[in-house]
Amino acid sequence: MHLRAYILRKVLSRFFVFMVVLTVAFVMPRLMPGGAFAYLIENPNISPEFREALIRQFGLDKPIVEQYVLFLREFFMEGNLGVSFYYRKPVMDVIMKALPWTLLLTTSSILLSALIGILVGILMASKRGGVLDRTLFNASMFFSSMPAFWLALLLLTFFGYQLGLFPLYGAYTYGRIYASTLEYVADVAHHLFLPFVTLTVLITSAYLVLSRNLAINVLSEDFIMAVRAKGLPERLVLFRHALRTILAPLLSLVSIDLGYSIGGALIIETVFSLPGVGKLMYDAILMQDYPMILGVVIITSAVTLLLVTLAEAVAAVIDPRVRLT
Q1: What confidence score (pLDDT) does residue 311 get?
Q2: For position 35, what pLDDT does the model report?
Q3: What single DSSP character describes residue 168?
Q4: How far is it, in rounded angstroms, from Cα 107 to Cα 307?
Q5: 3-state SS, residue 221
Q6: How far apart, in Å, are the Cα atoms of 157 and each of 144, 162, 201?
């Protein structure tokens, strides 16, 4: 299949998935006992004027089908996801302010994890059964079995509280006036270091084990024996021929991780009190802020599907065999 046709098919498929997610996220809360706006109706802290304004804005006095059509029109034509009960601001504005923090943390950690895991995994495969292979494999199993919140708390307690090397919360020093952009970047990097290490350690294990097992199978194939027989250096055998063969399934894992990690960052962002989408979702659930929950689900799904599609396009460019699936 031609590359352009392959990408177009993927885009249409992902848009269909997005519409299903959007529809389910919109309809399901309205079918629950008490409805999605029970908090709005029953909360005495919300003024009658604000309550009436929200009811008119969301069209709650209209049939659910009409509400859905109005919601789609507002979202696709105006980019409007409603007003947050808790923040009293447009949902889209609040999410767009938090999303860069989540993308910065998750994409950087996943890309570094993939790079380290793939390269080290191939080296482990070439040393199969040796001390390096057994040690790293057992270490990856150890970290894979460790809950994310537990590792995050361990790092935070030891390096943040006991040693005082890193801040205990936040993505930057609140109230600080920065003399330059470089100083701001350094402060952000200082705050995000422990969350970044936590995610990177946890994610690297999966890439390491998968690339090792894939490389073990590839290294026993005839074409690898042929290039070795030609006297090609081992590093070229591993990182030119073996790596190219196993790259497609590994890129698929990267695309899946990019999607999962945006929602999966909820635990890490909550432990480190980062102002990302995960922390936003956690607070919205606690506060029963339904418009915010709906907005986070929609935007997270959209970004996830976009990243997955981009990763699939890259995989199709690198390995044309992917277009056959």
Answers
A1: 76
A2: 59
A3: S
A4: 10
A5: coil
A6: 20, 6, 17
Write out the two tokens for 112.
């570094």
SS3 167: coil
Nearest to 212 by CA among 303, 278, 139: 139
For 90, phi and psi rounded to 5 degrees? -55, 135
CB 261 within 8 A of CB 199: yes
d(CA 143, CA 132): 17
Count other C-beta atoms under 10 Å from residue 53's C-beta: 12
Closest CA to 306 of 2, 18, 9: 18
| Cα 172–Cα 185–Cα 179 angle in degrees, nearest 5 | 90
Measured CA distances, 3 to 15, 320, 324 (Å): 18, 8, 10
Q: How far apart are CA 175 and CA 10, in angstroms?
A: 45
Q: Check pLDDT > 70 for residue 324.
A: no
CB atoms within 10 A of CB 11: 15
Q: Is the pLDDT of residue 288 over 70?
A: yes
Q: To which residue do tokens 């006991």 refer?
A: 162
**Which alpha helices (DSSP H) does the chain contain, by range?**
3-31, 38-42, 48-58, 64-73, 91-126, 131-144, 148-155, 181-219, 222-229, 234-236, 243-264, 266-271, 277-286, 290-318
Residue type, 68: Y
Q: How confident is the model at residue 192 (pLDDT cuts 50, 70, 90)?
A: very high
The one-character DSSP state at 43 is -
Q: Name the residue with tokens 């895991």.
A: 117
Q: Is the pLDDT of residue 181 over 80?
A: yes
Closest CA relative to residue 239, chosen from 118, 59, 321:
118
